[in-house]
TrEMBL record:
CDD domains named among the record's database cross-references: L-Ala-D-Glu_peptidase_like
Species assigned in the record: Holtiella tumoricola
Domain Peptidase M15C: start-end pairs: 62-120
A Pfam family: Peptidase_M15_4
Alphabetical list of InterPro entries matching this protein: Peptidase_M15C, Zn_M74/Hedgehog-like
UniProt GO MF annotations: peptidase activity
Identification of the protein by name: M15 family metallopeptidase
Length: 236
């Protein structure tokens, strides 16, 4: 059984490392259980619950190259706590973390839930891979350095706008851009009091803009503000 993440496709390896780092930050003791599988290893697992004792753990035959593990695009994880290696609640937490950085989580499958499993397929099906299609050419980070961009990403990490570096560097994850814009906007608004007042004025919550900019408001103004905000939020 192979647990070496260096046997994974470089992009998948990066995502596996990012997931482990995120788990560490969340206080989760997670390890890699398996990465690349040979035909023999995959067939051995396929036989479990069929010609060998035990529960069925996979529907993918090794002889037909039906597992993404065989294509170096998948890995399994476990909790490094004896007796609780596959605690369902922990695996759900890790599953959500994996999905947040672009990994596909086996626990989200309706037909055959595989909670320790993660994969990144580049949109390629098993049929595509067997027909000879390959993942896009990968350029290692060390060969594609944008120092200015990396410094910018690090700054946003310091400001807690970005959580996982690998999700944005060396290449950004497009699908999470909307969330990024929201976090940036909230940070900028937090730093600009006049902008905050302008937004409240645009929403019809604050009318006397100059009074609020100069902070000349009184207790009745604050009460009115809170009431108007409550009414506005109820409408949303």
């Amino acid at each position: 059984m192979c647990r070496d993440i260096n046997e994974l496709h470089p992009k998948v390896k990066e995502l596996a490392e990012a997931l482990l780092e995120l788990c560490k930050r969340e206080g989760l003791n997670i390890k890699i259980g398996e990465t690349y599988r040979t035909v023999e290893r995959q067939d051995y697992l396929y036989e479990q619950g069929r010609t060998r004792p035990g529960n069925i753990v996979t529907n993918a035959r090794g002889s037909s190259m039906s597992s993404y593990h065989q294509w170096r695009l998948a890995f399994d994880i476990y909790q490094n706590i004896k007796g609780a290696e596959y605690d369902s609640n922990i695996l759900k937490r890790v599953g959500k973390l994996g999905q947040s950085i672009g990994l596909e989580w086996g626990g989200s499958w309706s037909s055959f839930s595989d909670t320790p499993h993660f994969q990144y397929t580049f949109g390629l099906s098993i049929k595509d891979l067997n027909l000879g299609k390959k993942p896009p050419e990968y350029i290692p980070t060390v060969e594609k350095i944008d120092q200015e961009y990396e410094k910018a990403v690090n700054t946003l990490i310091e400001k807690q706008i970005i959580n996982i570096k690998n999700a944005w560097y060396p290449q950004p994850t497009v699908r999470y851009t909307a969330q990024l814009v929201e976090k940036i906007s909230l940070e900028l608004i937090k730093l600009d009091y006049d902008l905050q007042i302008k937004i409240l004025n645009n929403k019809g919550i604050v009318i006397e803009v100059e009074k609020w900019k100069k902070q000349e408001y009184k207790e009745e103004d604050i009460k009115a503000l809170i009431k108007k905000v409550a009414v506005y939020l109820k409408k949303q």
